[in-house]
Amino acid sequence: MAFKRNVPLQAGTLLVAEPYLGDLSFHRKVVLICEHSASHTFGLILNQKHDTILEPFLEGQSLEDIPLFSGGPVDPSILQFLHKRPDLISGGVRIVDDLYWAGDFNEAIDAIVNEKINFDEIKFFIGYSGWDGGQLEREIDSNSWHLAKVQPKYVFDTPFADLWRQVLQDLGGDYRVLATYPDDPSLN
């Protein structure tokens, strides 16, 4: 199959794992690049739900059932969030229209407590995905990742279990074939 790298590697780019990527941390994962420079790349896995909720990470707050996602295998003590409400959460970094990374954490929690923000407008992550300068480019050149442009619907509206296939389907062409690959090729 012929794949082209027609999306620049920058904040707002999605990394879509090749179907048989050997690294189990990224098996069929979609990573949103939040920051990219010559020295490093920082991203968050969008489609890996964590087995716990946010409450244990909040000091003195009692909030139940806030979903938590695993942003990646690096430093699971770091809490990050994506949102689309800069009117309620100051200090966020704009990734694309209607998608912001981070911001004032206390304002985010207050907006949740006061029911001013819904969980289709904010998503929390522990850990992150990171690459040293040039490392990710080498992985892309070896066809470990396919690139796509992020759309806020991928972060907030698409069910996380369907995200990998949905992004490939939306890319069209040969990518649609990749979306149909079984997890275990011996079952094909």
TrEMBL record:
A Pfam family (short name) is DUF179
Q: Which residues form a coiled coil?
A: none
Fetch the InterPro entries from UniProt.
AlgH-like
Which PANTHER family is this protein grouped with? TRANSCRIPTIONAL REGULATOR, TRANSPORTER, PUTATIVE (DUF179)-RELATED
Protein name in the entry: YqgE/AlgH family protein
Q: Name the species this protein comes from.
A: Sandaracinomonas limnophila
